[in-house]
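Design a sequence for this backbone.
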């Protein structure tokens, strides 16, 4: 696939650069790639469908992890730590209970809270009331009368947030110990950031420049990217 895509780019872009200097060629690439992407995207899309379209997504997934996940009980100290990290000005969820109010009464309700959280861990069940959210539409751009131009912001119960944070810590620990996550996943991971992603790609660019290669960057921005994720893949990951 890579060879054919490169052939398309070379034919429509690089073949017109024979009379350019190296710097001029780099400038010409910027313009030419825009033309290539706008006019030739359907060709690349056809190549992708031809080489990947018929493949089952399971073929690209790592083997099933043999180690099972044991959810350790959460302690009173950890729950208190999570609660005190909440910022007081955060908006409450559908139960109208915000961080400030919870902090004022936490000493009286901490024991039943810890019991309920551990009961949820042991049974694998989440109370229906914690699955409710107050959704606030936040305007993004363009026509205000079009619902697609608003971003839905769900305000969850603070008790659900505590439960999620406690579970997230255990899930992340399991993923790290069993080396399940992709090595180059820089987002949503502790000790990883976009800075590391930039360092990695810059290092890769320098390596090719040292070899006198012509470096080309093609950046794609998917609108509503999360909506394009195949739910079958997400379900498969959760049971893998």
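Sequence:
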């Amino acid at each position: 696939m890579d060879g054919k895509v490169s052939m398309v780019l070379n034919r429509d872009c690089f073949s017109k650069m024979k009379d350019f200097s190296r710097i001029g060629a780099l400038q010409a690439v910027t313009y030419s790639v825009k033309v290539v992407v706008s006019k030739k995207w359907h060709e690349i899309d056809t190549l992708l469908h031809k080489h990947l379209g018929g493949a089952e997504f399971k073929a690209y997934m790592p083997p099933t992890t043999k180690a099972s996940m044991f959810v350790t009980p959460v302690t009173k100290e950890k729950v208190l730590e999570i609660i005190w990290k909440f910022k007081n000005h955060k908006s409450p969820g559908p139960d109208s209970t915000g961080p400030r109010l919870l902090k004022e009464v936490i000493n009286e309700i901490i024991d039943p809270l810890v019991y309920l959280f551990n009961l949820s861990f042991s049974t694998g069940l989440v109370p229906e009331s914690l699955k409710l959210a107050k959704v606030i539409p936040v305007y993004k751009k363009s026509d205000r009368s079009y619902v697609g131009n608003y971003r839905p912001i769900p305000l969850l119960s603070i008790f659900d947030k505590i439960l999620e944070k406690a579970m997230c810590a255990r899930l992340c620990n399991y993923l790290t110990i069993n080396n399940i996550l992709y090595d180059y996943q820089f987002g949503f991971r502790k000790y990883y950031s976009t800075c590391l992603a930039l360092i990695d790609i810059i290092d890769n660019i320098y390596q090719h420049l040292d070899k006198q290669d012509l470096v080309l960057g093609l950046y794609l921005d998917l609108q509503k990217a999360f909506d394009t994720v195949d739910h079958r893949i997400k379900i498969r990951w959760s049971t893998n």
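The first helix runs from residue 2 to 12.
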